[in-house]
Write a structure and sequence with these properties.
The protein is α+β, with helices and mostly antiparallel strands. 21% of the residues lie in helices and 35% in strands. It has a single domain (4-125), classed as endopeptidase fold (from Nostoc punctiforme) (Alpha-Beta Complex). It is globular and about 35 Å long.
């Protein structure tokens, strides 16, 4: 069972992949472990800098299938035509939320509809 309280101790760290120092992709990897899902590549060193996140997300999506929002689905967020943020769908109290990590707020769990309103385009992948 997914325990969101675990993520209260997370501190955002650019390129963070080791709990409790995570960035947006680091949260995906950690949540997937907690949900018992197969590991995705760790993309060590990949950040938004120099369009690295956009490039790697697009390349990795070729190995995945686009899906409807569901627990465990990866989330790609677009600003214009570029992937600029990622998250992962989790179920909390019977409702879908997106777990994300940002510099000032660290890990947050936003209701799906509220999260989607923040971006031009949001895609879900498994």
């Amino acid at each position: 069972m997914f325990d969101p309280d675990k993520y209260l101790s997370v501190t955002w760290l650019k390129g963070g992949r080791v709990f409790p120092a995570l960035d947006c992709y680091g949260v995906i990897a950690e949540v997937r472990r907690d949900l018992g899902l197969s590991a995705w590549p760790d993309f060590d060193g990949v950040t938004k800098d120099n369009a690295g996140l956009d490039r790697e997300a697009r390349k990795f999506s070729e190995c995945l299938k686009r899906c409807q929002p569901c627990a465990g689905a990866g989330v790609m967020c677009f600003s214009g035509s570029m992937v600029t943020h990622v998250g992962i769908v989790v179920e909390l109290n019977g409702e879908l939320h997106v777990a994300e990590c940002n510099p000032k707020t660290h890990v947050t769990f936003l209701p799906l509809a509220r999260f989607q309103r923040r971006y031009i385009k949001v895609e879900f992948w498994q």
